[in-house]
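Objective 1b. Sequence-to-structure analysis of NADH dehydrogenase (Ubiquinone) 1 alpha subcomplex 6 isoform 1.
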Amino acid sequence: MKNLMHHKRGLVFSLRRFSTEYDYTGGTGRESSGLSTTEQEARERVIHLYRYALKSVPDIRKHYRLNEGKEDVAACIRDLFERHRNVQDRKLVDMLVFKGRQDIDEARAQWKGRHQVLNYLRAFEEKKIKERAQLVMEQHVKEDNEFIRVPNAILAANISHWKKNKLIPEDISTPKQFRRWKEEEEEKFAQFAVENGLFTREELQLNKQYAKQHNCGIM
């Protein structure tokens, strides 16, 4: 290493030329990682990183005072890995492993802010909420389709009969409208029964399941 000394007005400037070794990611440092030579090697690196991440969960929860349980944090980590399940390019896999290791090391060393860690957990929670909402929507569509499969003549006769006997409102004319109205009426009755000590929520749910299994409902 050469030093170039330059004296000017009593000040000494030292210019040094450094020899820097870069790894394949473009970063510098003592630790450098080579590219995976096979898909199996890349897969083993991913598995090793995943295990390392799970082992780091207790420290991360402690350092950042997380209210989420160990299982919730582990589920969030698994979801981050699942996002890249279909990545096949070994170079891209190696890059993701390097970035993941870097993120975990920074979290363990408390180099990340608490808000950065919480952002991962909040994004995961929002994703779960959307997935649950989608499942509920799909279930409703499925139930509507099952209801529509009832022969039209029988369904029309039932609706007409119920209207004539004033069992349902006059403005109900479709299965979807009837189903929504029925759910609202059941909820009103449940609230009344619970508030007045007639039944508990658990008892009402058991009664509903029994009626459905034995087909003993009025409608």
